[in-house]
């Protein structure tokens, strides 16, 4: 499979609202010119999703919308006990009122209500994530996390959909961000240490069809003292120009081809095997926790099994170097969306 890498800077969309270039890049080369979208406004979807995790706990912070509905959420859960804390604020007809940043690499984002504040700040080489909830109408939260961004390489992909030429997905994922800080929830305190905890940014902008499925896997850790991460997935549109499968090692991105897996086969908590057609991603996956979520609101019906587990196997970098992976805690998910 030919993987088309985008090198030439320019706008994402043409005057007709279609993608000017299709493929992947290792940094934000294209400019998200939102004003050129020609699809109906209720088809636009935009989100900033941060995940901070280690071997024991996962914190997820989201500000996003699907035009006719918005969701601001903070979730923390323990893998071993299944204990979960959650706050979600739903917005009716937000459309562009959240003022989502036009780039994953710059621009702050904040949601503010009397009893709840969520703020994402982007600095040169780092990010700060804050949540404050008074506890008046939900659990009391005080979260302050700093993510260091030492690596310049990341995954950016511009993907069309076959259903309509005005549909597209522009996605920027940043792995391997060492995380430090504290999440205080009611009377419980969770400490994130940068030697064991890593942050992920999933920055998504696009115009989507109403119904589709996707499979997505991601993780970051240290291997022999070096930062290692991966992103795998399919179902996000027509990926003939490029897949979104990529390895990260010691600050460098390594593009790989198709990775095959079926998360639902034999049940979501059954052991799985992942294999790429170029032999560069070969993993055994042993689930430990299924973070199942379901959202039903009017015609919206979204279900997602986000399964965390331990990855064991090997990957091969662009130069042929083999990296052995042992008990890496990461996730793979299957989402079924009608939105």
UniProtKB/TrEMBL annotation:
Q: Which Pfam families match?
A: DUF2804 (PF10974)
**Name of the protein in question:** DUF2804 domain-containing protein
Q: What is the lineage of its organism?
A: Bacteria, Bacillati, Bacillota, Bacilli, Bacillales
């Amino acid at each position: 499979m030919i993987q088309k890498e985008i090198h030439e800077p320019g706008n994402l969309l043409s005057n007709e609202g279609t993608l000017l270039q299709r493929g992947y890049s290792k940094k934000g080369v294209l400019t998200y010119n939102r004003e050129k979208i020609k699809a109906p406004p209720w088809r636009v979807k935009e989100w900033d999703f941060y995940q901070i995790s280690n071997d024991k706990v996962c914190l997820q912070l989201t500000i996003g919308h699907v035009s006719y509905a918005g969701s601001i959420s903070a979730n923390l859960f323990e893998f071993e006990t299944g204990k979960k804390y959650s706050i979600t604020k739903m917005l009716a007809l937000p459309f562009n009122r959240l003022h989502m940043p036009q780039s994953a690499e710059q621009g702050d984002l904040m949601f503010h209500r009397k009893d709840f504040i969520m703020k994402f700040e982007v600095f040169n080489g780092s990010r700060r994530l804050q949540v404050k909830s008074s506890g008046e109408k939900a659990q009391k939260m005080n979260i302050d996390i700093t993510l260091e961004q030492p690596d310049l390489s990341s995954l950016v992909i511009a993907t069309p959909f076959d259903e309509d030429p005005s549909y597209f997905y522009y996605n920027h994922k940043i792995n391997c961000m060492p995380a430090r800080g504290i999440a205080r929830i009611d009377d419980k305190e969770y400490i994130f240490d940068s030697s064991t905890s890593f942050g992920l940014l999933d920055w998504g902008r696009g115009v989507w069809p109403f119904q589709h499925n996707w499979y997505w896997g991601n993780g970051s850790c240290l291997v022999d003292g070096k930062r290692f991460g991966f992103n795998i997935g399919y179902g996000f549109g027509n990926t003939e120009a490029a897949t979104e499968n990529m390895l990260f090692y010691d600050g460098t991105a390594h593009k790989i081809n198709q990775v095959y897996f079926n998360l639902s086969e034999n049940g979501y908590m059954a052991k799985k095997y992942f294999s790429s057609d170029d032999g560069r991603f070969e993993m055994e996956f042993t689930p430990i926790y299924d973070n199942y979520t379901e959202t039903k609101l009017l015609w919206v019906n979204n279900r997602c099994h986000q399964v965390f587990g331990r990855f064991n196997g090997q990957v091969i970098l662009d130069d042929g170097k083999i990296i052995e992976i042992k008990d890496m805690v990461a996730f793979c998910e299957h989402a079924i969306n009608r939105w």
